[in-house]
Amino acid sequence: MKHSATLFADDAGRYAYVKAGFSWPALLLGSFWAVAKRRWWLLLLMLAMDACLWFGSHLATELRIGPMMLLMAAAELSYLLARGWYGNRWLEASLRSRGYKPVVPG
Predict the structure, then answer these.
(1) pLDDT value for 79
(2) Does the pTM of the predicted model rise above 0.90?
(3) What residue intervals traverse the membrane (predicted)?
(4) Half-sphere CA count of 102, side-chain side, radius 13 A
(5) Which of 8, 32, 79, 95 has a 20 to 30 A CA-CA distance from 70?
(6) Taking a C-beta distance cutoff of 8 angstroms, is the pair 5, 94 a contact?
């Protein structure tokens, strides 16, 4: 299996490397991954989503509403998978919005 990645550079000579495909660190580490990548807006959005899911899960558990508990479990799983599937794309979009461009070899 071949892994591909893109090297980005900005005008100040800073470089960033973004792997293509699924992001295991984004899936497993979530907000900590956003901190490590220094993507503060993404961190705020992830923390807000984490808080909403946490609140909804606890509410469903406290009220003992079975279908709502199942729905919250599905929502949490979907959110974890979305972080993995889109993590590298979010990182790439963030870099591009900050003026980074792909480095063309040669």
Answers:
(1) 96
(2) no
(3) 15-35, 40-59, 65-86
(4) 10
(5) 32
(6) no
